[in-house]
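Record Ancient ubiquitous protein 1, 357 aa.
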Amino acid sequence: MGEQVRLEQLFHSSWFRPAGLSTLALILYAPVGVCLLVVRLFIAVQFFILALILPPNKFRQKVLRIICGVLGLTISTDGDSHPHGKVFVSNHITSFDHLAIHLATNAFAPTKKKIFKFLMKPLALFLTDNESVTNEQIEFFDDPVIVFPEGKPTNGEVGMLAFTTVTIPEGFTIQPVGLQVSRPFFHANCITASLTEEIIIGLFLPNTHFSIKFLSVETVDAEGDWKKRTQATIAQSLNLVPTKFTTADRAEWLKRILFRPPSVATMARAVQQQLSPQILAPETILAALQRTGTVDGAVQYLRQTCAASLQASGSGLPPTFPKSAAQRMMSFQERKRIMIATARQKYIEKHGLNISG
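=>
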């Protein structure tokens, strides 16, 4: 079933939706959005202060949830979280999925990124060497842990990546979580976007809504089949397709869409710079590029061609250009002297002149 979905269907390469009425509405909304962005930046400071000083409990969750609503992050839940659940397993859509689930469950997410320690609690994160769940983490934290085994966000509209980036010890009770995210005017995420862009868009828009669906608890088995089983469970609850694509496939596809081959003019300038101070005709350089396809190949080909030409004329110059600028200038002057002498000799022979001495 996973083969029916193409990898590119799992991601959006742009924030913007297709042009239409939504584009017109976005233009009309823009002044309001800018005002909201400025005001919410100041409110975000209050959120961090309260998240830092309040102890983890139900009151803290309610207060932070209200402030997040003002900031444009709204949450709705379906079902109940397990009262003794220690590990939540969710699909991944945005950079703030863990924060939304934290406000509903008080769960914290592991991260390998180096973040200021005082920001860890407000952002619902804890530092770890890897993103897998260990017995030590479960025993050390009183609060539950939230993990995203897909590894990277998808658009949450078509399918899910395979669960490959997280390992959970055998015997643990886990609760799958189905997550959906919606935004007006914009897609939920963009594969090429930065965290800064996502923050600005979130504060600019009226709201970003997270719909959290708590599913039946499962037990991690020894064989590791829980990954396929849990992926299928979450996908079915969200009407998505569980695919076999991994974060490695995503990375390769991202390289392809971001790669922009250099123009012929740029390549020609690079060739000429490497062959300087010798000046070649543009047609000669373009012909070499068409023959070899690369800058290095064209440079090597032109050097060999020039060297062969000079050797055929009896110049005795080496097949490669000297490395230093002084040596290159000397070889240039030598070639110039040979060309003048050759032209002079041809002129004398053509006109039958007898010049002695």
